Amino acid sequence: MHPPAALLSDTRRAHKPRDIGARLVRVLLIGLALLLLVGLILLPLIAVFAEALRHGLPTFLASFEDPDAWHAIRLTLTVAAIAVPLNTVFGLAAAWLIAKHRFRGRSLLQSLIDLPFSVSPVVAGLVFVLIFGAQGWGLGPWLADFGIQVLFSLPGLVLATVFVTFPFVARELIPLMEEQGKDAEEAALSLGASGWQTFWKVTLPNVRWALLYGVLLCNARAMGEFGAVSVVSGHIRGETNTLPLQVEILYNEYAFSASFALAAVLALLALLTLAVKTFLEWRHGDELAANRRH
Length: 294
Prior knowledge:
By secondary structure, this protein is mainly α. 80% of the residues lie in helices and 0% in strands.
């Protein structure tokens, strides 16, 4: 039996003020979010490129004639090229162990993976100085006897970067692997597949897009890391300065055009990462969203 038209009309009128209020709140929240997005992210990004090109394109390009600038760019890419694969392997192994198995200390391992999120990068850098420094726990002098220098060299930069980017890959994979369970792996093993075949043909394809997403996040943080790298680098020009450190040095020396030119390179790398991330979310949004439902 259908309700009378007058009753429906009264009901719509009763809900109308509430609907208007809900729409108003939604518009205000969207406006506030857009305002914060423009003020805190978009305007600073535009300012970096505007300052970099303030004195013209020739001045901008001249900033890259400095050998120290090119060394900083190469060193940044080198550190990321070493740290990201290490964290990719670690993230895959840790996620597989935590998601597919139950063992004593599992919760502790999960907490340790999250540790870099809660520890200041500067504190992490100081810990590496304590471990590998000449006045620390003695590991640095012992390695130096074998010709290995950790602090103020590439190994120290890589260690600091690996630490701060530790959780990115693992944290993307663990919820997804837990949701998928291990039925597919057990079926493959029961059909005679080896452990490596099971991993390569069953486990890895099921998490490939989430893995790539985590690698992108890890790479973006590795290239932009400042605090921990600053502590262990020693700020040696042309040797241990990554791009963020070189930007700071040039800015402190009032070389604003060169400083903003290098900052623009970092911003371009970040935008490139964002573009790839957006493409992944567009093409594989359902799979990437699966690990965020928990």
